[in-house]
Records
---
Amino acid sequence: MSILSILLPDFLLIVLGFVLYRRAGWGLEFWTGLEKLVYFVLFPSLLFYATSRTPFDFSQSGRLLQTALLTTAAGIALGWLAKPLFKVGPMVFESAVQTAFRFNSYIALAVASRLAGDAGTALMALIIGFAVPICNMAAVHALAHRKGGLGMALAKNPLLVATVSGVLCNLAGLHLPEIANATLSRLGNASIALGLITVGAGLRGNDTARPNGIAAYFIGVKLLVLPAIAYFVGRWLQLPPLHLQLAVMFCALPTASSAYVLAARMGGDGPFVAWLVSAGTVASAVTLPLWLLLVT
């Protein structure tokens, strides 16, 4: 399968969401409801279905997780190391630093599915399940003096709950009735396309002046530095080819729009984060194919 055929369909869906949001006239209520449907119902169904059914070789999966999580930790460190370098307004750095390490789960699972079907989806879901609490804790920590409740937020996170539940069912050897599996499969199939469309709908333009130096730094770390770290760590740990591909592609993902939601809810600079997320997503249309070319 060519790199173009792996990534182009996903970015076309993002473009479709961008166009529909601006031209269809369906209103903000429609898009908010669609995003909630994907996040709370469809996407967790995919994660549970994939992780509960796919056999894991934990000797190899463990090295995959090591690579992804070590690189995520490096992203958190590189983000905070930049604080003395940039003089920006109150809450700008604290809001934006999360874009150096948070990731878009919708694009992650879309790419993994294209690369290796259900097996790729399950492995990427495993990474997401471990990375979500780490990234969320690091992101909230930056804004923690504004709002608490991190533990409860993680316990209620539908992506984390679905992944952990699926892995536990897998390890326990439990099997759902075929009707339940078929229903979850269909819900999961709908999640990727609709999730990517909501990514496109969430893209925002740069309508005000932005601190471009810090923006370039965070986007560069997320799209260029982290996948390079993942590549060298994965080679050092002797990951199999598929695992190396998944680790690098996970670390090369743009930031999710939930970064904007967090910043806005916790008194940060939401518009700047929204622009960073959008700019990173657009830039990833160039960087993701380059990284995939390197590890294919």
Note: The chain has twelve helices and no strands.
---
Amino acid sequence: MPTFDLAPGRNTQRGFWGTDFQLEDGYVHVKSTGVRFKNDWQLWADIWRWFTYYAFVRAQGFVARLTKPRGPRIWFAPHRPRPWYIIWAAMVWGGFEFAATPARADAAFYFEDQTVATPPPPQHAKAFNFGVGDVSKSNVARVMEEAFGYPLAIDPTTFVGEAVEKSEGNGLHDGRLVTCPLAPVPGKAYQRVIKTEGADGWAYDLRTACVGGEPVVVFVKQKPATERFSIQNTSVVVKTPEQVFSASEIAQLERFCATMKLDWGGLDVLREHSSGRLYVVDVNKTDTGPAVVLNWRDRAKATTLLSDALAKMVRL
């Protein structure tokens, strides 16, 4: 199958959206992250649902510009977020402005899709996420153990039993179950199997959006346990952190964000069914969403909560 690429050999992340993607071997590849999606009817149905949300956010943003005081101006470096990122929706929803230069901004924001990168100098007194350069699985597991006091990572050469093998890269959804001990594969991380399912056979991912280092919204994702590593969800509902976590668990998540130096981002949190413990298995500092399977009420609720929290963080 021929390759289709409007900007061959380049990862632009600016200008026309189509240059961010490449169509190859029946998959749509996201150039900035390496994530790929099968080019099928499910993908295009999801894209259509996303476009309806995009129009909804644009309409709300237009109303906000007419009825509210001017929102904060934020400068992003090295890239301005595309519309499929949650922070774009939060900004437009609240009537914020994308500043062209740091001198014209109320705050600066580090925005880079790479798993491991070196943040540039913030060039602004009020700066966010500039301390987050490494969101690899190994570093996330290290920070989680420091913040929570118990481990997620395992040594595959000495561990005995079932474990999870996944790429260090962000958002690849290529996890698989392996039996240890084994020789580690370069570029892979090895972790405990965190089983969130009970007798009903459903696995749950508590995708927790954090702003200002605090949990703001929890997207409770449900899927069959046999598809625990799939990007597709059977259902997603929005809840507040207090509906999902105890006060001590919220403090744990805040401690994790502080240790990670994460001002804004999405945490993939799993609650082990047998022990009740929380595990942060992934961090996305450039999280996309909200999930297209959400109903309109939950989309509006989540976007409002995140927009309000972003405004509060910038204005503090």
Note: Residues 137-284 form a domain with the D-amino Acid Aminotransferase; Chain A, domain 1 fold (CATH 3.30.470.20).
